[in-house]
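Progress report, Aim 2. The chain analyzed during this reporting quarter is listed below.
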Amino acid sequence: MYTVYAAQVKGPYRPQLVSFFQAEIPEEQGHAQFLADKIVALGGVPTTEPRPVPPASDAKEMLENVLAAEKEAIADYSARVDQAEEAGERGLAIQLEDIVMDETSHYEETKKLLDGWK
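Predicted structure tokens for the chain:
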């Protein structure tokens, strides 16, 4: 999503939004790599199907889509924390809690951008 939106964003805030979107890419890739490695370590096979990127007609809609995606990621990772704890995987639960913290920070930063949008 961040890669697509960084390429597509237009308008007067393009330079700032390109930087905002691109800054998230390495962290999200790191989360994906960590999860893929952990899934394999636990005997599974990582998915190769990313979620579709919702189309957006303007920068505000892109940010709204990012906000919704971050909210969904927080809920998904929080559920994985609970599953890890139930499975006795305390270390994994802690690592997933760190990801929840990262996603919460992304959510809050995106919300701040939208709160000031006219």
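DSSP finds four helices and no strands in the chain. The first helix runs from residue 2 to 8. These observations will guide the mutagenesis work planned for the next reporting period.
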